Amino acid sequence: MQLYLPIAEIPVNIFVIFGMGGAVGFLSGLFGIGGGFLLTPLLIFSGIPPAVSVATVTTQVVASSASAVVTYWRRKAIDFKLASMLLIGGVVGSLFGVILFDVLQSIGQLDLVISLSYVTFLGAIGSLMFVESVRAIRRRKSGAAVSARRPGQHNWIHGLPFKMRFRQSRLYVSVLPILALGGIIGFLGTVLGIGGGFMMVPALIYLLRVPTSVVIGTSLFQILFTMSAATIFHAIGNQTVDIVLAMTLMIGGVIGAQFGARMGQNLRGDQLRLLLALLVLLVGMRFAVELLLTPEDLYSAIPSRA
Amino acid sequence: MIVHIATLLVLAASLVCSQARAEELVTSLSSNMVSIQSNFTGTEIVVFGQIIRDAHTVARPGNYDLAIAIEGPKQDVTTRRKKRFLGVWINRYYEMFKGVPSFYALATTKRAGELGDRSILDENGIGLNHLNLPVSGHSRVPLSDRDDFRKAFLRLRQEEGLYSERPETIEFLTATMFRTSIPLPANIPVGNYKVKSYLFQDGILLSKQEAELAVAKIGFEQLTYNLAQNQPFIYGLMAVLIAIFTGWLAGVIFRKD
């Protein structure tokens, strides 16, 4: 069934879009991720204009994180103070992201920057996750003890000024790295159409040493509001949020996520992380191939916005 | 039914304005408005017409030729060319075509180039090779490459279905009555269109005529689009609230604990 998208101004097969939302939702439920980094490329590769894909996925990420936040809120597994600090950084980063997005679009380099960023970030994070999960699987097989959080251990981040106490996370750290982390992820999320949970969670654990019990809830809470801001900024700055496309993706996504989450309970954490790492690397490689191979058509013709 | 009504309209109109010139062209569209709704996957516009000769005109030997062009609202289109830079393909040169039709579909009785003199075709923009495609002054494209950009622009627009040239698609019902149907693809831009009809004989432009056609989103599509354009903050806020509600609802429905 064909459905005309009012903002993208093209008809799409609604079942294909619904299926994409469902498939990515399934993976996001399975791995406990937002799935924006999979959904945005899928939409771009299927012919939706990149500007509309990125902006619309920010809306879909709001829905998928809202769905998960409900659960973590009920379990009281959110550090609201830490989330608010991340959020301040996130909203500022997101604002800069939309401005850059607009500039890149007008000089015709948006697609390039999106592709290059995907290659860089997905490549780097995929490789790190791959190495980490392979090590974890080996350790488990050889029966060595898994290193837990060591509260006494300090790194360079703990030497920074403007310290603040976060009771729920049992942390006393500078707000600077928190604002910076929120800012960078808000910025990247807005430009690339991703929630950034797969970057936020490791950063909170390894850099700030936030306890794992609150890390996912806090990350999700911050993503929910940063992506809400990003949606509004994209709507104002670029008018590229397609609500019909977003709704279709959302419904497919939340349903798929339920099945994914159930299946995820039967798999081991390190196996899941290995699968996720491979998936991340695969998407990164798809973009790399696009950039390196000689394009079928060297020319492109894009109308200026009225 | 539509055919009959249109025919009647044509005949009625022909009675009114047959005195002016030797050969007169009268046309009528199957609809003056194309509405885009959620189920829009393209449509077609039927153009009917009649060639009217007044009583004083001697019937000329030779056949009539016709060209009917549907032109969309003007827009600026940037055409870019990729070049390899540090191993990566990036957009390097660009040429901006200013005030070119966002849509152009031409139906003719024979190939556009054979209808008449080059100067007449250029002047009226009949045929893709005769469209006026002005470029912006500040282009860095070398002069020798300008034509490549023009060709690429026309090729890309044709691939998207936005520009087309379909010779021998106007059908004569009688010696002076004709009919053609011009497809409008799903990705057709919205705005005010012009339907231009030209009558040729032996390479001479005898008459031309222009009609209006509106392409517009209606209903929910119009509402959504207008809100996104005119009230972007409210639109964005609504998108967020819908997303949060959907997510929350799913969280409640599929609650596990």
Automatic annotation (TrEMBL), chain A:
InterPro entries: TM_pro_TauE-like, TSUP/Inactive_protease-like. Pfam families: TauE. The keyword Disulfide bond does not apply. The chain crosses the membrane at residues 12-39, 51-73, 85-107, 113-131, 171-194, 214-236, 243-261, 273-293. It is found in: Cell membrane; Membrane. It is a multi-pass membrane protein. Keywords: Cell membrane, Membrane, Transmembrane, Transmembrane helix. It comes from the Bacteria. The keyword Transmembrane applies. Belongs to the 4-toluene sulfonate uptake permease (TSUP) (TC 2.A.102) family. This is Probable membrane transporter protein. It comes from Roseibium algae. The lineage of its organism: Bacteria, Pseudomonadati, Pseudomonadota, Alphaproteobacteria, Hyphomicrobiales.
TrEMBL record, chain B:
This is TIGR02186 family protein. Residues 1-22 form the signal peptide. It holds the Pfam family Alph_Pro_TM. The keyword Ligase does not apply. The chain crosses the membrane at residues 233-254. InterPro entries: CHP02186-rel_TM. It comes from the Bacteria. The keyword Signal applies. It comes from Roseibium algae. NCBIfam families: alph_Pro_TM. Keywords: Membrane, Signal, Transmembrane, Transmembrane helix.
